[in-house]
Amino acid sequence: MAQYQITVDDEILEGLFQRDGGVAKLVESVVNQILQAQVQEQLKAAPYERTKERQGYRNGTVTRTLTTRVGRLVLRVPRVRNGQFSTELFARYQRSEQAFIIALMEMVVNGVSTRDVAKITEQLCGTTFSKSTVSELCKRLDPIGQGWNHRSLAEHRYPFLLVDALVLRIREEGRDRSRAAMIAVGINEEGYRGILGLMLGDSESEASWREFFAWLKNRGLRGVDVVVSDSHGGLVKALHTEFQGCTWQRCQTHFMRNLLDATPKALQEEVYQQVRAVLDAPDLKTARLLKDAFVEAYAEKAPKAVQVLEDGFDDVTAVLVLPERYRRRLRTTNGVERLNEEIRRRERVIRIFPNRESAIRLLGALLMEIDEEWTTGRKYLNMDEYEAWKKAQEASRGSTQACAATA
Fold first, then answer.
1. Which of these three, 75, 90, 105, is where a domain ends?
2. Which of residues 296, 331, 366 is at a domain's end?
3. pLDDT in the model for residue 85
4. For residue 234, which of 272, 203, 195 has the smallest C-alpha distance?
5. Phi/psi of residue 249, nearest 5 degrees
6. What are the entry keywords (predicted)?
7. At what angle are helices 303-316 and 284-298 packed, to 10 degrees?
8. What is the DSSP letter of 113?
9. Sheet holding 160-172: strands in order across?
10. 68-72, 131-135, 303-307: which is most confident
11. Cα 104 to Cα 96, 98, 181, 220, 393, distances in angstroms
């Protein structure tokens, strides 16, 4: 990773706290210095320096503006004779930042927003925007997001799949409507985590979830062994239809909330500890013994909680059949919930998306950046033990079927 030596003028430091736009001036100064350092690296020579390693000569600068949430930056991009100065700086300008700005602009342009939102747009972006500006930015950003969201998934198997949805407010036909944004996260056979796709549905109905899962499979999703989700009725029905033969793990976090809601307040803390012990059991046999003991102890004191545990026991402990190292990461949808929190940070500012395209643009851009970090970073899980365990399970089933056939 390159390191740069940056200097800051006293005037910029004073303005940082004394006038509007001080942060933008500071960022502008830093970025311009980075650009000069990068052109020096590429030319292998400082201005007016004579060296044998020199790769070219400077040819002045060209002014370029960059709109960010701290304000508009005026950058002096170096030019090089008989060549082109290349920098990843602008490529690294996050797509989610652009989508965020576009969503805010659309709210103002389409008349959806209030004066407060218009004020926020000017404060965050440092300028006002016309319809043509919005259209041009969308043309550049949308194909990138659509290409990512519709990419083929056939390159890998995804043994583990985690799915969840969050509700967004979107303006359609002149009315504000609630729509479900469905998101899938997969862990492939190499142990890398990735965001597989995003789709907007009218609601969290079985039809919407089935459409979402069918879309993922049409793009090449395969090899799914375990699916983790909450117990929403439409979602569970769609899972059993589209992923027949897979193990469904009910999210333990959602389950505990449901169980505690059915528990008398005075007993909630001790019930939590008792049920947590059931879920953390070393194996399914031990979990069942602890569950039976809980049922006997609380049948009269907390009958509704007992009923919730008995009804959901098999689904909420499905993960216990897996090797221990995989249970913690697959017992909840917390990983997807954290994605939702990142989305909510942006969505709370926008409040109401002006259309579906705007929602897909912002969410897709943000998820695409996170997906890039995940798929190029460290492995999320070591899958060696899982693959060995799976082969042993298949061999055991084959042996059992052979014995049955012989008998």
1. 90
2. 331
3. 65
4. 203
5. -105, 115
6. DNA recombination, DNA-binding, Transposable element, Transposition
7. 170
8. S
9. 193-201, 175-187, 160-172, 226-229, 247-250
10. 303-307
11. 12, 10, 19, 35, 53
